[in-house]
Structure formats: C-alpha cells, structure tokens
Amino acid sequence: MKLDLATILGIIVGFGAILLGNHLEGGHLDAIVQPTAALIVVGGTLGAVLISFPLSGVIHAGKAAMSLIGTKNRTPEALLDEILGYARKARKDGIVALDKEIKNASDPFLARAIMLGVDGIDSQAMRDALDFDLMEAEERGEMPAKVFEAAGGYSPTIGILGAVLGLIHVMSNLADVSKVGEGIAVAFVATIYGVGLANLMFLPAAAKLKILHREQMKLREMIVEGAIGILQGQNPKLIESKLRAFVHDKHEPSTEPSKQPVTATA
C-alpha cells in the first residue's frame, strides 16, 4: 500500500498547530479533552448523516476514507503498460488469445472491457456498454464525498447544540460552583470540536475524495479507449499515443511550438 504523505502531514500539521497554539497561550490539554462534548458532536453528526444517507452509503464512505491514508491502486503508467501488453498480444495472435491472460488483469473493469472484445462485440456496442458502466461508477463514486460534505455541514451546528446544552447545565447548577466550571468547559469545547472536525477532517476529506474519484474515472476512461483500440486492431504505438493523454508524465517533451525568429520579407 502506498501511503498518502499529504494526508498524514495535513493531520499532523493541522492538529499539531492548534494544540501548540493552545499550549503557547497557557492552555492545558485536559481543558479541551472533554468526552461529553465529543460524544455530543460525533454522535449527533453521525446520527444526522445516517438520517440523510442510506446505511450502505455511509458504510461505503467509511471504506473510502481508508484511501485517504493509502491506496492500492496502480499508477497510470503501470495501467498503460498493461494495456499495451494486451494490445501487442492481440496484434500478434488475435484478440481471442487474450481470453486466458485477461483473467489476471489488475483491474476488474479492464478485464470486463477486454472480455467484451473477446466475445465478439462490435466497437460501438462496446463503447455503449462501457459508457453505461462509467455512468454508474460516476454516481456511486460521488457518494463518499457527499457523505463527508454533509458531516462537515452538520458538525458545527451540533457543536453549537452541545454548547447550548452545556449552558443549560450551568444555569441549572449555579449553586454548585464545581458543576458550573464543568458545564462551561463542555459548552465551549463542544463548539471547538464541531468546527474543528468540520474544517480539519470532514470537508478536507470530501475534497480529496473528489480528487481521487476523478483520477479513478480518468483511468477507466483510459481503459475504454484502450480496449476499443485493441478491438479495432489498432497499432500499439497508435494506442499508446492516444492513451498518453491520460498519463501525466513530467518527462514528456513539451508540445509547445518553439519560438523562431521572424524574418521580414519584401
């Protein structure tokens, strides 16, 4: 698994800066560690999310969150090499020769695309079938980001709710000084938890999940174009030239026209 250092550093820097700033201001860690406030904010936000989305969508979002730390997905370069390998094999021995090899494909969508060609479907029917799969994947892949966006919208409000509950607790126990201090702590910390989770966890997670989903959709689009090229018997070099548009290679030569001196003509 390839770790996402940006996410890990973001968590460390974000929370570390807040805790360090609190320490420099003379605050203590135990003052902002309030289990009651955490229960109100986390539990309330989770409840609101469960009301807003089906359980399957929430579970899907939880699994997708693991990709923020690390991913097992292959790189575009590796996928390109794999497609070109199938293209060369089909060019040499015919597309039917891929029947056995495609079972070891790294991506199930790639295996499905190639198998459509092996089964003798024409290129237009293949594109229609794969485009439908892309539409389904697009809609399904947007769900995790929507779940985290919703959580980011709910948690600050739930934090305010926790603050109000804390103040109610304070007002009902004015005679007991020890309970007054505890109630005020819960009130303010609940707001911190709500705003902090929204802006340091939920909303950033939603933004990155959108980026990761878009990258996966580009890989699937590359698979579609590659599979159709293989079915049509195109030269592997031609297929590579088309699929290079999906691969961000820093070492590719610049395609910008070079500046040439302008010669005046009579």
Q: What is the topology?
A:
Layout: E1 2-3, H1 5-24, H2 29-32, H3 35-52, H4 55-64, E2 70-71, H5 76-93, H6 98-101, H7 108-118, H8 123-171, H9 177-231, H10 236-243
Antiparallel strand pairs: 1-2
Helix pairs in contact: 3-8, 3-9, 4-8, 5-9, 5-10, 7-9, 8-9, 9-10
Task: Describe this entry's structure for a reader.
- With 266 residues, the protein is mainly α.
- It contains ten helices and two strands, in the order E-H-H-H-H-E-H-H-H-H-H-H.
- A two-stranded antiparallel sheet has the order 1-2.
- Helix 4 packs across helix 8 (123-171), helix 5 (76-93) packs antiparallel against helix 10 (236-243) and helix 8 runs antiparallel to helix 9.
Secondary structure: number of strands: 2
Structural class: mainly alpha
* Mean pLDDT across all amino acids: 84
> Helical content, roughly?
over 70%
| Strand residue percentage | under 5%
Order of strands, main sheet, comes to 1-2
Termini Cα gap: 65 Å
Element-level helix/strand string: EHHHHEHHHHHH
Q: Biggest β-sheet, characterized?
A: 2 strands, antiparallel
Q: Please, how many helices? A: 10
As residue ranges, the low-confidence spans are 249-266
- Gyration radius, in Å: 27 Å
* Overall form: elongated
Short description:
With 266 residues, the chain is mainly alpha-helical.
Using brief descriptors, characterize the structure shown.
266 residues; mainly alpha; two-stranded antiparallel sheet; 10 helices; 2% strand; disordered C terminus
